[in-house]
């Protein structure tokens, strides 16, 4: 049924509901609807379907003759029949109505054409996919023949390979739907056995034993020729969802082929490589089976776990033992590879089941007394003795085979993870070594415990030494991330060795790439274990201090600091402390760090007294810059307190040594970032409590000219945070620097910037209600603000500011003289920042200063507006990138100051010109067009919102007119208009302005629809449509309704014009789709009157969303896990809409059958990813809650034959699990 017909029927029901609410009249309307459907809709559809079936059957006869025509090539026949089958599927032809048996015809045609195949092609696999779609049931009988042809004949093109991948994936999914998946695997392995001579790459076993790469490569290629990537992926996902019966059948099939066809035929004298080839194929399937079967999920029945337990025991005793013996005897490298793969898969599952399943029957052997070597895996993998495991590793090491080495390292990593879990259980449980005890009441011998500890260290060292394989290799065999196993290895390794590894790594990577700091950071990101990070950062800091020492900068003191603080013993103590294995190091650490703090204080005193000046004329080495940048890019905030303290003190030494030189400015800027990250709030860090913060402030004050404004602000905040933690330190600091900061307050000097930063921090502390502001602090705030007011009251400041405005405007003219841009812009920024802070801290001023500031603030407010306009008129948008960066801060400060002034605008209104607000409005609108940064846009919108709120009635009408004027056929202006409407809706306005706002909103809704075609034409639809959809949502969620019903209904319909199919990026699709779902959700929750008035609008919008989501979630689209997750989020949006419909049962009772039909029709057309289908089904169940018996009958009458079958299954599930039965 088409959407227009559904909408017409929905309109009939809606109008009847509005005219008469009587239950008898409602029944009459419903009967009228059903009669309308029966008489006007269904007969034409039935006639059309009968005609289509007749035409299809006539074409069937023609194609039957084509298939038997010997003069037509087989590929051409494939194309013709494929087109015919596709037309049947697309037109939804019911082949059961054919007079002849269509399935038998498909089967005969397939067998006839397959017999003609001499070389597989893309057309061949496309034909097989078409048959799978229209007649999947015939494949069980022809599968073996089809697979034999597909395996035997080579594929000579990439397109053919891709078509084979698609076919094998669809074949697996089809058999899974038919619940015959184990049968497919049985037939596949049967085909491999029957055609083993043709499939086997004919590799001489002796060449395999000599480990020639070509021999191994041919094996791998031949296996991938059969088990394509898509097939293995589909196989893995199917295994994870199989019921217990099919799991048992599949396991029996795999076990039979492994045991009967491979293991029992092991004979080294035959020299036949086909046996190892079959072992490889079966091994791949068993590995995928073990890696994907679910046993730890709460939904898995206990019977499944019991069967898996039996399978694991049998695999170990009957298979792995025999393969291990054969491997030990022959040392065949291919046999070793699949033995290790099976061992890894078995070990992963074994580990999971031991941890999560109480019913898992396992027997761990007694711990041997000599269980020390890392390669001895007999405790975890008991089917080989320890000596044989060690011999196997030596054979692998000798072969230099990377894959087998990686697999062996993975097994050792499993052993290490096992030890880590044992220790965790030991700490959590009162029973010592619970998992390793043979008898419940016995405990392990002390010698065994010592051996276990040594074995753990040896295993950790083994894993760490092969970390490059774990990082770069294929980690499919691991049941843990590379990062987690490396973290475990770093914890259990000897810390002295770990420090040595960090030093070696630093020398080999960082020192060899001294100028490539980006590469250094990328390299170290391979190791995300915090233990190794800390070791590496300590070594980097040590090397940085050595570089400063080489520069002859405070050489003697830095050498002493290195000797006392960053000694090898100290580094080991730090690592032991953060791994929490030896807690006794804490007191020693605190003593060392306290001593280092004293050294830093001595260095600052020396610097301030000029006892050891920086006389170095050397340029800073590139390596030092790379090291400091590397440290600054680490996540220092996550490090433990001793580590942060160590980094802070080490970087403080470098900072003190280099601060007074222009040559080291870039390095100092990075050091400021590190110090600020590691040194904040030392109240909770006893290590930094003894740092001389007052001396550090004096050091900053004397060298402030070498620091950037941002660094001045950061260091000031850092120092004052640590000074104001106690009244004692506060009084000492203010006694020393209180008067000095007031005397230094100059708007155009670096010292003035420092005083401004102090004033900003103090005003923030005073404003914070949680802060215990002492009288000294309040008094200092008053002195600073009074000083700032006196500086601003000087008429020369405002005069200089206006001269700068004139200079900016002149720069637009060609050949005009330019001023010192950086200096001028900085001056504007400081003045505006000062004005803003004084307005915020007006309560801290004296009465005289507050009165004076109320007078002088007006000229600065006028200047702020002039400067904002000059940013546009003076060519701000055309300036170079570096000048644009300079302009950002003053514009930001002008906006902040303007917003703060508008909060008390009534105080200034009479003293400002009448057009002041309108000028500021126009200026902000133009800046909003030019801004690219979202934060700047939000700030600009905040200013616009404040202007709307303070405007009088006349000004408000002018503002509304300017919004309407933006509704043109230009996409940027249309986007701006929608953004302004959002601001208009959010603003809290006086009563007199509410009627003009309502009229403006209704007018804009109508005018916007005139330009809705821009959505289809624009490539950036999300940027244009988002503000308008957000505006509609806010309009619907208003506490007091706004807008008449017809206007709102028509504007809602506009979302069906969204070109969601054009949105390729899944994140953008999710964002836009979620916005539309929020809009429909707001409609159902807040404006049921609109739905009652125009029900078909809601129905069309709902169908539009479902269709676009299902198209994206089609399983033929190859999506990543992240993309599927985004679509699942969209599916939950549809589910929430269905849930919201329950709030309006009266309005939605008649509509819910149509909504159910919309969902079910999509399930018939497209196979949706299960992750997306589940929330849609949940939404369907919520809609069925509102359907009575007549509604269910109505749903059946609107569905096709295929959809009825789907509905039957869905309805049965609903009645069984979801329908409310009056019980909780």
Task: Describe the overall structure.
It is a single chain. This protein has 1224 residues and is mostly helical. It has 56 helices and no strands. The longest helix is centred in the first third of the chain and has 46 residues, at 23-68. The radius of gyration is 39 Å and the shape is flat. It starts with a helix and ends in a 6-residue tail after the last helix. Residues 1064-1223 form the Nucleolar 27S pre-rRNA processing Urb2/Npa2 C-terminal domain. Pfam families: Urb2. InterPro entries: Ribosome_Biogenesis_Reg, Urb2/Npa2_C.
Strand content: under 5%
Major beta sheet summary: none
Number of strands: 0
Work out the radius of gyration: 39 Å
Question: How many H/I helical runs?
Answer: 56
Topology of this structure?
Layout: H1 3-19, H2 23-68, H3 74-90, H4 102-115, H5 122-134, H6 139-152, H7 158-177, H8 181-194, H9 196-199, H10 205-209, H11 213-226, H12 229-239, H13 244-259, H14 274-292, H15 302-330, H16 333-356, H17 386-399, H18 402-428, H19 446-465, H20 467-472, H21 482-492, H22 495-510, H23 517-524, H24 530-550, H25 555-564, H26 568-579, H27 585-609, H28 622-632, H29 641-658, H30 665-679, H31 693-702, H32 709-723, H33 727-743, H34 750-767, H35 775-792, H36 795-810, H37 821-840, H38 847-873, H39 881-902, H40 916-930, H41 934-950, H42 953-965, H43 971-986, H44 994-1009, H45 1014-1017, H46 1021-1036, H47 1045-1053, H48 1066-1086, H49 1088-1093, H50 1095-1112, H51 1121-1140, H52 1145-1148, H53 1152-1165, H54 1170-1184, H55 1189-1198, H56 1201-1218
């Amino acid at each position: 049924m088409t959407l227009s017909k559904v909408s017409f029927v929905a309109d009939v029901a809606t109008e009847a509901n509005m005219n008469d609410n009587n239950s008898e009249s409602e029944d009459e309307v419903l009967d009228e609807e059903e009669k309308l459907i029966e008489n006007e809709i269904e007969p034409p559809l039935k006639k059309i379907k009968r005609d289509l079936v007749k035409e299809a059957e006539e074409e069937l006869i023609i194609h039957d003759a084509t298939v038997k025509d010997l003069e037509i090539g087989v590929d051409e026949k494939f194309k013709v029949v494929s087109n015919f089958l596709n037309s049947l599927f697309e037109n939804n032809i019911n082949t059961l109505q054919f007079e002849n048996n269509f399935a038998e015809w498909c089967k005969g045609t397939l067998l006839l054409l397959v017999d003609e195949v001499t070389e597989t092609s893309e057309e061949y696999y496309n034909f097989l996919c078409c048959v799978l779609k229209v007649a999947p049931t015939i494949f069980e009988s022809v599968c073996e023949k089809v697979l034999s042809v597909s395996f035997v004949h080579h594929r000579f093109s990439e397109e053919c390979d891709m078509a084979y991948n698609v076919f094998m994936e669809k074949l697996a999914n089809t058999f899974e739907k038919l619940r015959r998946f184990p049968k497919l695997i049985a037939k596949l392995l049967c085909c491999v056995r029957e055609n083993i001579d043709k499939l086997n790459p004919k590799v001489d076993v002796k060449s395999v034993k000599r480990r020639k790469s070509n021999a191994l490569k041919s094996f791998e290629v031949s296996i991938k020729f059969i088990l394509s990537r898509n097939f293995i992926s589909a196989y893995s996902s199917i295994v994870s969802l199989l019921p217990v019966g099919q799991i048992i059948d599949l396991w029996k099939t795999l076990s039979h082929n492994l045991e009967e066809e491979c293991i029992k035929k092991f004979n080294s004298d035959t020299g036949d490589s086909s046996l190892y080839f079959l072992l490889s194929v079966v091994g791949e399937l068993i590995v995928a089976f073990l890696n994907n079967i679910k046993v730890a999920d709460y939904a898995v029945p206990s019977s499944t776990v019991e069967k898996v337990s039996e399978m694991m025991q049998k695999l170990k005793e009957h298979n792995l033992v025999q393969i291990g013996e054969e491997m030990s005897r022959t040392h065949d490298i291919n046999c070793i590879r699949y033995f290790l793969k099976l061992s890894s898969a078995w070990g992963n599952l074994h580990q999971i089941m031991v941890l999560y399943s109480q019913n898992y029957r396992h027997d761990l052997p007694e711990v041997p007394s000599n269980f020390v070597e890392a390669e001895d895996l007999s405790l975890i993998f008991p089917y080989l003795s320890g000596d044989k495991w060690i011999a196997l590793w030596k054979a692998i090491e000798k072969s230099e085979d990377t894959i087998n080495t990686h697999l062996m390292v993975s097994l050792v990593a499993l052993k290490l993870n096992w030890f880590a879990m044992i220790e965790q259980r030991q700490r959590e449980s009162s029973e010592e070594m619970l998992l390793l005890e043979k008898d419940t009441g016995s405990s392990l011998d002390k010698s065994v415990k010592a051996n276990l500890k040594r074995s753990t260290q040896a295993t950790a060292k083994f894993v760490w030494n092969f970390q490059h394989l774990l990082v770069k290799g294929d980690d499919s065999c691991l049941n843990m991330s590379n990062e987690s196993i490396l973290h475990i290895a770093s914890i259990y390794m000897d810390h002295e060795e770990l420090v040595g590894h960090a030093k070696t790594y630093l020398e080999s990577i960082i020192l060899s790439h001294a100028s490539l700091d980006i590469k250094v950071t990328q390299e170290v990101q391979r190791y995300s274990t915090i233990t190794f990070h800390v070791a590496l950062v300590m070594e980097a800091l040590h090397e940085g201090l050595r570089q400063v020492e080489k520069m002859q900068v405070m050489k003697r003191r830095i050498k002493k600091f290195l000797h006392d603080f960053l000694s090898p013993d100290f580094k080991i103590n730090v690592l032991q402390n953060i791994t929490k294995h030896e807690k006794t190091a804490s007191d020693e650490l605190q003593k060392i760090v306290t001593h280092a703090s004293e050294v830093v204080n001595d260095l600052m005193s020396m610097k301030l007294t000029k006892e050891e000046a920086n006389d170095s004329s050397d340029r800073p080495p590139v390596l030092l810059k790379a090291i400091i940048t590397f440290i600054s890019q680490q996540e220092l905030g996550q490090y433990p307190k001793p580590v942060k303290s160590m980094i802070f003190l080490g970087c403080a030494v470098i900072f003190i040594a280099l601060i007074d030189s222009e040559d080291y400015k870039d390095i100092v800027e990075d050091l400021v970032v590190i110090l600020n990250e590691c040194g904040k709030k030392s109240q909770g860090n006893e290590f930094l409590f003894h740092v001389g913060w007052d001396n550090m402030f004096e050091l900053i004050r004397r060298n402030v000219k070498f620091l950037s404004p941002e660094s001045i602000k950061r260091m000031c905040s850092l120092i004052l945070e640590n000074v104001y933690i106690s009244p004692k330190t506060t009084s000492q600091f203010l006694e020393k620097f209180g008067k000095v900061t007031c005397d230094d307050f100059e708007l155009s000097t670096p010292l003035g910037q420092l005083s401004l930063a102090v004033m900003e921090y103090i005003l923030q502390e005073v404003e914070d209600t949680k802060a215990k502001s002492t009288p000294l602090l309040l008094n200092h705030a008053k002195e600073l603000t009074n000083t700032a007011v006196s500086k601003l009251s000087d008429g020369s400041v405002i005069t200089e500011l206006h001269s700068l405005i004139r200079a900016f405007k002149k720069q637009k003219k060609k050949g005009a003289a330019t001023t010192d841009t950086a200096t001028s812009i900085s001056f504007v920024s400081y003045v505006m920042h000062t004005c803003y802070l004084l307005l915020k801290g007006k309560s801290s001023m004296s009465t005289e200063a507050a009165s004076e500031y109320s007078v002088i603030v007006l000229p600065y407010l006028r200047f702020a507006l002039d400067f904002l306009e000059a940013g546009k008129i003076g060519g701000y948008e055309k300036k170079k990138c570096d000048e644009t960066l300079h302009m950002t801060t003053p514009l930001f400060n002008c906006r902040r100051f303007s917003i703060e002034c508008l909060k008390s605008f009534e105080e200034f209104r009479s003293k400002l010109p009448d057009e002041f607000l309108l000028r500021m409005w126009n200026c902000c609108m133009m800046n909003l067009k030019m801004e690219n940064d979202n934060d700047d846009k939000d700030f600009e919108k905040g200013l616009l919102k404040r202007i709307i709120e303070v405007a009088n009635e006349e000004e408000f009408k002018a503002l509304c007119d300017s919004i309407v004027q933006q509704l043109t056929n230009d996409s940027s202006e249309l986007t701006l208009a929608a953004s302004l409407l959002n601001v208009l809706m959010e603003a809290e306005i006086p009563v007199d302005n509410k009627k003009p706002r309502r009229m403006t909103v209704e007018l804009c809704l109508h005018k916007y629809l005139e330009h809705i075609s821009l959505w289809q034409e624009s490539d950036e639809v999300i940027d244009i449509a988002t503000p308008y959809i957000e505006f509609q949502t806010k309009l619907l969620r208003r506490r007091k309704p706004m807008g008449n019903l017809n206007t709102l209904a028509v504007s809602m319909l506009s979302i069906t014009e969204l070109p969601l199919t054009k949105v390729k990026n899944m994140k953008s699709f999710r964002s836009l789709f979620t916005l539309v779902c929020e809009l429909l959700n707001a409609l159902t929750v807040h404006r049921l009157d609109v739905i009652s008035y125009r029900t078909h609008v809601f129905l069309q919008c709902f169908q539009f969303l479902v269709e676009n989501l299902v198209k994206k979630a089609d399983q033929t689209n190859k999506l990543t896990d992240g993309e599927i997750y985004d679509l699942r989020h969209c599916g939950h949006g549809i589910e929430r809409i269905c849930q919201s419909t329950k709030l309006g049962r009266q309005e939605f009772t008649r509509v819910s059958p149509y909504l159910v039909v919309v969902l079910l029709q999509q399930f018939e057309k497209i196979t949706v990813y299960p992750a997306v289908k589940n929330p849609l089904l949940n939404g369907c169940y919520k809609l069925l809650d509102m359907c009575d018996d007549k509604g269910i009958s109505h749903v059946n009458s609107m569905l096709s034959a295929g959809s009825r079958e789907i509905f039957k299954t869905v309805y049965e599930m609903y009645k069984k699990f979801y329908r409310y039965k009056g019980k909780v």
